[in-house]
## 1
Amino acid sequence: MELNKIEEKESVNSFSVTDLGLALWMNGQIFFNKDLIFEDPSNTVYFQDNVILAVTNDWKDSVYFDLAGRKKSILKDIGGIETFLDKSSALYNKWNDDYTQSVTQRIDLLSGEVIWEKETFFEKPYFSDGHLFGAMESKLYRIEPDTGDIVWQVNLVDKYGSYLSNGLKYPMDVQSYIGVSGGRIYFKAGNRHVLGLDIESNEEVLFYEYLEEDVILDNLRLDSHKNVIFSLGARKYFELNLNNSKTRIISIDTPSKLTNFEFSRLGSWDDNVLFFWEGSRNDSFGILDRNSIEIKLSADLNFDGKTGIKQIQHHNSKLYILDLKNCLHVFDIVDF
């Protein structure tokens, strides 16, 4: 396996690649397959599959693009979203003028109409497989996406207490969502716990505590086909089998150029191939085979000076790497 660089693009803030093509937020404008589709300066841009939402006018308005349906709409007084719920609706937190109170709304992105509104604020909203969750302080909520009603809530402190980080005690909370599969929601709690709850009953179906280096749990992903949760970190490959709660923790032989592999970050992944980069201010990256737990390729972006990598995505035997200097590097993957 080897890489051949085929293109570089400067001044790329972010990007997304799907079966329809490559979307770029570049020089403040939005391009799709090299065509300029929005030229007004954008404050930020959200990508979701074949949908783009650009926030404009000093965070006051948004413009919505459905690339597959070739639809566009202008959304007045909607300055960004919390998360997409599907390709044509999203959650939006609407604040009063002095930002002391807010309501949560589900917005139709084509018409701008409010589908529902609740006087509740949720941090970390997460939508997957038709299910909506939110967190606030140490509570996890399941929310009915069609109405905004709270279905259930779980107080993690009541059940799991607190955790230690750098010698300080914190109440147990939702750090990140891992995924939804088989009627269960999986998430990382605190800095060492992986939890799973039944979506209907909120009963605990998985409790796992990692007692060594917590950095290994920084990149948790869910493989619903194999029914495992996996991660990469601390020069190890981690895998938790959801059928029997057994774990595999395998040390990885690393090439000498990967000097900071200890703090690696995961990009996209496909079947048994993981794309990762070093979680430090350098330009090294690699490809790991999950079957053999071997690094099949390691390389760098060959800068004269040090920089860093902030996003890696692959699609159709091409690898896209965005660095911290906003340069997008595009490679062909040979023998992928």
## 2
Amino acid sequence: MRRRAPTRSLLPLVLSVLAGLTGVAGLFGLPGCDCGGDTSTPAGTGVSCATHATPLSEPRTIGRATLTPEDRAIAITGLPETSRWVVARGPALSVEPFLPVLDAIEAAQPDVVLLLGSFGTGERLEELVTSLAELTDVPVLLLPGPRDRVSDLDAALEAHPAPHVIPLAGVHLLEVGAVQLLLAPGSTDPHYVLDQACHVDDVATLLGEGDSDRVRVLVGFDAPAGTPLTAGIDGAEAGSEIVREAMEDAEIQAGLFAGPNTEIGRWRDASGAPSVAAGPGLRVIVPPLAGAALEGGSGVRSAAGPLVVSVGPTGVGPASAPNGLP
């Protein structure tokens, strides 16, 4: 694959320090930030990105995947029964170049790339979009978070068009074989939401759009409260009670989440028990795509980088290495 060398970001190194401070706030259950590269602007009035215009008007084939829109859903066909996805939070707070990140994504041999918010602003956002444009043979899906203004993302994609890079604001679910990924762009907690960025005002309604006969997985910023996955220092709860109640009411157990920064990259089932194999009802907090390692409530440090996820008949879970490699 021919690739341009991405331009080195000139954002100050202090952003890496702020990334660590963000993790500390998340561990204590405080209203920290997943700052999208704009730490000078206080949280403000969010917007419901779930009502944004949908990105596709007709089917689009990218690599072996065909994405077919229907109302506010996108069906993804042409993939293996169990497909490989690279899932991560965006790299807004890092200052590292993207070339090594693209190499890591390609090495994982994904069928789909899914980024959950924290895309950055200004130069960093443009650098992300132009770098993702190099991954031409897989769909790259961008679900905005509470520090992402959809207008900024739309402008960056218009300035650097790439048909395989698709924003998911306005899309409520992805259908992948037997699995439905239910999308919650932004946060339910206004403390996390940047002014005019994505706010989830009714997660219960979004979850209600799923088909109870399918395997349903919530994908969003806020992990549900109540398990070791969201336990911070000294057991401080950093998860969302709103999301927990909505998932229980909708009888949804599985999820892929971008926060809080408590236990990153470690799979657990709905009861909180750890899991090392794919299966029903699993959930995980995904790492940032790039940046400094983050320390969880147990003191274990989690490295940044893409998380490889299997999406198949039983739901989501850890994926095996490609081609039998360790």
